[in-house]
Design goal:
two-stranded parallel ribbon, 2 strands
């Protein structure tokens, strides 16, 4: 499993070690996924080189924005509210 981080190497290393301790295979890579060149050249290539072909990719990228959350029920919120 390839684990990516863009700011804190320590957090990536912790997750990689937990996966390995549980018997899995993992590689940690630092790359900014908002930069297409970094994504291809650093993350995808590094994971492929270390672990082999990538069968599944999942993204859990978050963007931090200082703004209050809406006070509406989840189902009443539009996708635009969460951007």
């Amino acid at each position: 499993m390839g684990i990516n981080g863009s700011r804190e190497r320590g957090g990536v290393d912790v997750v990689v070690e937990e996966i390995r301790a549980a018997g899995g295979t993992a590689s940690g890579v630092m790359a900014d996924v908002s930069d297409p060149d970094a994504l291809a050249a650093r993350m995808v290539d590094a994971v492929h080189d270390e672990l082999g072909p990538i069968d599944i990719a999942a993204s859990n990228v978050g963007v931090r924005k200082a703004a209050p959350l809406p006070r509406t029920p989840g189902r009443a919120s539009s996708p635009r509210t969460w951007r």
